[in-house]
């Protein structure tokens, strides 16, 4: 992950599990415990032994969602089917395999992307779901280190994935495309000599896609017209800004989220970090006014209509703890929506089927100071209130 990347970043450093402990991690997948409350949040009494996080989620119906992340040194995939979440076995490559993005066009067709370590290098990781099993899919790499952070599929035969790669000491944008048979690198512009990274992508049609990220201290937006990717001007408030999520309800209506600051060097490094929301009206990107706690970030956004969007992230409370943050757009204004956040929690991804059905995913820790490894957190919106579900390893 580049130093100036503004996409979701877990609070803890993943431990490198090896030998017997790695086997233990895999064995425990089948015994995940989950507890939910009708209101507020609850957790199991079992103690966590591994670092685990969900970084992205995709729902294709109210009864079918897939969330991805990592568990210790391995990929983690959780599946929502009507009324409960359950872990699904997923393959890994090399070391430190993690999934950062996912998109499902149906309950039988999903693609997840991320990266893994091999020979001291970071390489792209792509996995595919056919309705029965997850399998590894060959994907190309560029430069010294390559990673894919976001993916969007228009159909089972057309997907776009974005991320970054390192070459000659510079971080540059990486775009890969799926044609139903193979993944291939698609040329994408980078703003030299600044470090450029794409963190999320959304396609309205096969010939209309938008990707967002950051370069140096500024926001970065790129557009696909069916033939080539090109940079689209986007504003950067403050002295630093970056975009980590994007969602479009049409080709002329998109929302991107991230953070900005008037000091420091980027995400999480300044006490002045604020949430950033930008909107596209078909002609230009502009900053959308909205509320922000004193130290806050938005990582993911999902829009079901031009007048209905949900964004998720985190903020630092008065006591110095990270708390889950949810904001909503009603067509006129952005507002903070109360949610039953555990004492220490972050939300990294969100997927909405309608204005009354959303799933948001992230991580939490049961320790009020965040001194223990995190576990997956899922929050659900029913049109009236958010409820939380915590997933624990017994």
Describe the protein's architecture and organization.
By secondary structure, the chain is mainly β. It has one domain (19-392): Methylamine Dehydrogenase, Chain H (7 Propeller). Helix content is 3%, strand content 57%. It contains 1 helix and 29 strands. The protein has one helix spanning 19-28; strands at 33-36, 52-61, 64-71, 74-81, 84-87, 95-106, 109-118, 121-129, 134-137, 145-155, 158-167, 170-178, 183-186, 196-205, 208-215, 218-224, 229-232, 240-250, 253-261, 274-280, 285-287, 296-305, 308-316, 322-329, 334-336, 344-354, 357-365, 375-381, 386-392. It has a 5-stranded antiparallel sheet with strand order 1-29-28-27-26, with no helix packed on it. The chain has a 4-stranded antiparallel sheet with strand order 2-3-4-5. The chain has a 4-stranded antiparallel sheet with strand order 6-7-8-9, with no helix packed on it. A hairpin with a 2-residue loop joins strand 26 (344-354) and strand 27 (357-365). The longest helix is centred in the N-terminal third of the chain and has 10 residues, at 19-28. The model is unreliable at 1-5, 11-49 and 266-271 (pLDDT under 50).
Features:
single chain, 394 residues, mainly beta, Methylamine Dehydrogenase, Chain H, four-stranded antiparallel β-sheet, 29 strands
């Amino acid at each position: 992950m580049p130093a100036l990347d503004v996409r979701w970043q877990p609070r803890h450093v993943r431990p490198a599990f090896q030998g017997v402990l790695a086997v233990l991690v895999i064995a425990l997948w089948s015994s995940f415990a989950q507890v939910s409350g009708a209101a507020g949040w609850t957790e199991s009494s079992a103690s966590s032994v591994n670092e685990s996080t969900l970084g992205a989620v995709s729902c294709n119906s109210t009864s079918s969602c897939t969330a991805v992340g990592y568990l210790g040194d391995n990929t983690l995939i959780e599946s929502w089917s009507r009324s409960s979440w359950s872990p699904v076995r997923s393959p890994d490559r090399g070391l430190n395999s993690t999934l950062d993005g996912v998109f499902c066009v149906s309950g039988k067709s999903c693609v997840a992307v991320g990266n893994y370590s091999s020979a001291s290098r970071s390489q792209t990781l792509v996995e595919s779901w056919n309705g029965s099993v997850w399998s590894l899919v060959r994907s190309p790499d560029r430069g010294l280190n390559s990673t894919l952070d976001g993916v969007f599929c228009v159909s089972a035969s057309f997907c776009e994935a974005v991320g970054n790669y390192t070459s000659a000491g510079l971080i540059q944008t990486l775009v890969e495309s799926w044609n139903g048979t193979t993944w291939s690198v698609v040329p994408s512009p980078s703003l030299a000599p600044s470090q450029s990274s794409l963190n999320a992508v959304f396609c309205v049609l096969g010939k209309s896609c938008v990707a967002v990220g950051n370069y140096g201290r500024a926001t970065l937006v790129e557009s696909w017209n069916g033939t080539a990717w090109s940079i689209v001007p986007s504003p950067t408030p403050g002295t630093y800004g970056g975009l980590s999520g994007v969602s479009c309800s049409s080709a002329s209506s998109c929302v991107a989220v991230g953070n900005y600051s008037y000091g420091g060097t980027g995400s999480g490094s300044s006490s002045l970090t604020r949430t950033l929301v930008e909107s596209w009206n078909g002609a230009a990107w502009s900053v959308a006014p909205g509320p922000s706690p004193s130290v806050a970030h938005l990582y993911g956004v999902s829009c079901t209509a031009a007048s209905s969007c949900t964004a998720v992230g985190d903020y630092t409370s008065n006591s110095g703890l990270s708390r889950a943050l949810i904001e909503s757009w009603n067509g006129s204004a952005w507002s903070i929506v109360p949610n039953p956040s555990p004492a220490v929690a972050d939300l990294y991804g969100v997927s909405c089927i309608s204005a009354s059905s959303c799933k948001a995913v992230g991580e939490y820790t049961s320790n009020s100071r965040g001194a223990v490894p995190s576990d997956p957190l899922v929050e659900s919106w029913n049109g009236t209130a958010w409820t939380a579900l915590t997933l624990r390893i017994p």
